[in-house]
Design a protein that fits this description.
By secondary structure, this protein is α/β, with parallel strands linked by helices. Helices cover 36% and strands 15% of the residues. It has 2 domains: 131 residues, Aspartate Aminotransferase, domain 1 (Alpha-Beta Complex), CATH 3.90.1150; 214 residues, Type I PLP-dependent aspartate aminotransferase-like (Major domain) (Aspartate Aminotransferase, domain 2), CATH 3.40.640. The mean pLDDT is 96. The structure holds pyridoxal-5'-phosphate (PLP).
């Protein structure tokens, strides 16, 4: 027996070790591990979300297949009409679904590295051809090269991220306008928009999600994983143009959202004050960490509008630093491949988490 050969050349996704496995390996307790590698929210889920999980009474029933209550609540939260919104098992599922419904074998997709890895994983899984247009040295999009590729290669879509993972920079809004005038579906991933500044609470004014209804070529992806601290429950959402919505509904598996995730997401949307307060602490900590890290002789932190910082390691090995921190029970993101070989990424945690990381880094200075 043999599986379809179309997966033969696709590298498997590399998972990072969970805190529990890592703790066991290092002989530590799980709560001694400081997990700063995956841009999670160390404040955890909101009090109302935790209460909703503790009181969950409907686990024996299938969840609401069309998630109408959640889509309506998200419409109030984002300003995007409920009929444009689809809920996913994490934004990851929606990245996969867009590739699934958009691509025929050989269709091309623009990805702008450094970028979140799922765009290329899902493009390859659905037999798409990846065209890489690397970001410029300031991590903004290379608009001239993107326009040339669109003109010459007629790609079906482009995945862009604002703020971008791994550098945290917001895309210049004018560049998004220019992209929207090209004949290509723009999938704009706003997984971290709630941490951006200058756009009001939850970065609402920085988001383009309200424009989806008036455009034919814009899809916007969001998630509860980061700002709402629900990464482990796997729940994200997106707003999609009218011609795409019915096809996504056809292809998405029924009951893709479990009842616990739906209840916690709804409760988070009723707990916005405390979640906004936590975001504001993370924003302040982000500034404090940039200043503190910049004082260390071997670290160059980049400015960021997300809940993480990309840092260049100067005059020593990023791989060694990763191992040294790991031995102290601190897990950061080490990329280990060009162009990010000498870079690390750290999540911004609570003040006490950031203090522990700083202390460990200062001991190495
Ligand atoms: C840019 C970006 N998009 C999407 C995701 C995945 O989000 P979710 O947890 O909702 O699948 C991540 C996770 O790190 C991310 O960095």
């Amino acid at each position: 027996m043999k599986t379809s050969s179309r997966f033969d050349d696709i590298a498997p996704y590399e998972f990072t070790e969970s805190a529990i496995i890592l703790a066991a390996r290092l002989g530590l307790k799980p709560d001694q591990i400081l997990k700063l590698d995956l841009n999670e929210n160390l404040f955890g889920a909101s009090p109302l979300a935790l209460q909703a999980l503790a009181n969950l009474s409907c686990a024996h029933f299938y969840s609401d297949a069309d998630c109408s209550e959640l889509r309506n609540a998200l419409s109030d939260f984002t300003g995007a009409p409920a009929e444009t919104i689809l809920i996913g098992n994490g934004a990851d599922e929606l990245i996969d679904l867009t590739a699934n419904v958009m691509l025929d074998a050989g269709d091309s997709v623009i990805i702008c590295p450094p970028a979140f890895s799922m765009y290329s994983v899902c493009t390859s899984l659905h037999q798409g051809r990846i065209i890489e247009v690397p970001r410029l040295s300031d991590f903004q999009l290379d608009m001239a090269s993107i326009s040339t590729v669109v003109e010459q290669e007629h790609p079906k879509m482009i995945y862009i991220t604002s703020p971008n993972n791994p550098d945290g920079c917001l895309i210049n809004p004018k560049d998004i306008d220019t992209l929207l005038n090209l004949p290509i579906l723009v999938v704009l991933d706003e997984a971290y928009i709630e941490f951006s500044e200058g756009g009001g609470t939850f970065g609402q004014q920085n988001s383009r999600i309200r424009e989806v209804i008036e455009r034919k070529n814009l899809a916007v992806l969001r998630t509860f994983s980061k700002w709402a601290g629900l990464a482990g429950l796997r729940i994200g959402y997106g707003a999609f143009p009218d011609w795409l919505v019915p096809v996504l509904w056809k292809v998405k598996l029924p009951y893709n959202i479990n009842a616990a995730a739906e209840a916690a997401a709804l409760a988070s949307l009723r707990d916005l004050d405390i979640l906004a307060e936590r975001i504001s602490i993370i924003q302040n900590e982000r500034k404090r960490m940039i200043d503190a890290l910049a004082r260390l002789p071997y670290i160059l932190p980049y400015s960021s509008q997300a809940n993480f910082l990309l840092c260049r390691i100067i005059g020593r090995s990023a791989a060694d630093l990763f191992q040294i921190l790991l031995k102290k029970g601190i897990l950061i993101r080490y990329f280990g491949m060009p162009p990010l070989t000498e870079y690390i990424r750290i999540s911004i945690g609570r003040p006490q988490d950031n203090d522990r990381l700083l202390q460990a880094l200062e001991e190495e200075a």
